[in-house]
Design goal:
Elements (H helix, E strand, L loop, with lengths): L10 H32 L3 H27 L12 H32 L7 H28 L2 H29 L6 H28 L6 H12 L6 E10 L2 E10 L5 H17 L4 E10 L3
Parallel strand pairs: 2-3
Antiparallel strand pairs: 1-2
Helix pairs in contact: 1-2, 1-4, 2-3, 2-5, 2-6, 3-6, 4-5, 5-6
């Protein structure tokens, strides 16, 4: 079965393609964010302002990918034998925390508007802006997804789905602005839309932080994936069984160590070849394994 991202390209070519694609999405996201925030302030729509701030999370994701291609994916060195992925996790948690702070501020502002009855009816062009940005984000999703398949990039694919989530969050913004224009006496509608969009920001921030925390806390492989890996190892010629499988997450993948049982009468050379074949199968398979340490044991102990 063909991999959903297509056949992998050379690392340099793929890296250049990911960088160019991300630069374009970063520029588009920055323009959309400024467009929504500016028109939201001019048209007195808290919902559109909140939606514009939510779009900034796409800019943050884009910048994270650009930094990752340049530094976090750099080869391990003497002082960092396991790579530099922990720094990415720390920065990601800081970004998620800032998004939570922003969402909290937007909710507080909306509550203040309702409490003091200072909310106003949004201008007509704020509705047009919200509808245009919804459509543009959906188009960006399909374009980024195609690029992810072209360059075999899981990071770009994740970013494409982030574009889709931003488009979905724009839908309640459109509905809230339209309702506020139709029912101008209901001053709570636009602030309510701001709160709903802020919930999307909260959800995105928590999801970002949860993934980074998993890396910092050496989260293991999911049980179903570990079972798949054990079956794949046991299918390697010369392997009789495998056990004591341990894994820890580091950035986009996992470091793995496991014990492999082989016939006790094999030579050291033959046992080494089996261990090498196991490692190559794990590293080149669709298991998200960054590195694997294989411990050989005789099966007659």
């Amino acid at each position: 079965m063909q991999h959903p991202l297509g056949a992998p390209q050379q690392p340099h070519a793929a890296g250049e393609g990911v960088t160019q694609t991300t630069r374009k999405t970063l520029a588009l996201n920055a323009v959309l964010s400024c467009f929504k925030i500016l028109l939201g302030l001019m048209g007195q729509s808290q919902t559109l302002v909140a939606d514009g701030i939510h779009s900034l999370s796409d800019c943050i994701t884009d910048m994270g990918i650009l930094l990752g291609v340049r530094y976090w994916t750099a080869p391990a060195d003497e002082r960092h034998p396991y790579g530099h992925w922990r720094l990415e996790s720390l920065v990601t948690i800081a970004i998620g925390g800032s998004l939570l702070f922003v969402a909290g501020g937007l909710i507080f502002q909306a509550w203040q508007s309702v409490r003091t009855a200072t909310a106003t009816t949004p201008a007509w062009y704020t509705l047009v802006a919200a509808m245009l940005t919804l459509g543009s984000k959906e188009l960006m999703f399909h374009w980024t997804k195609r690029k992810a398949q072209t360059f075999h990039s899981s990071a770009l694919l994740a970013n494409a789905w982030h574009q889709r989530s931003d488009a979905l969050s724009s839908l309640p913004a459109v509905l809230a602005i339209a309702a506020a224009m139709i029912f101008p006496n209901l001053t709570f509608i636009d602030p309510l839309g701001s709160v709903i969009v802020s919930m999307f920001i909260f959800a995105a921030a928590l999801k970002i932080m949860a993934g980074a925390m998993g890396s910092l806390m050496d989260e293991s492989l999911p049980p179903n994936k570990q079972t798949t890996i054990e079956a794949a190892v046991c299918a390697v010629p010369g392997v009789t069984s495998a056990h004591a499988i341990r894994s820890r997450r580091n950035g986009p993948g996992y470091f793995l160590d496991l014990h492999v049982l082989v016939p006790g009468d094999l030579t050291v050379r033959k046992s080494h070849d089996i261990a090498r074949n196991v490692r190559q199968k794990l590293m080149h398979g669709d298991y998200d394994i960054l590195d694997a340490i294989i411990h050989i044991e005789p099966d007659d102990e």
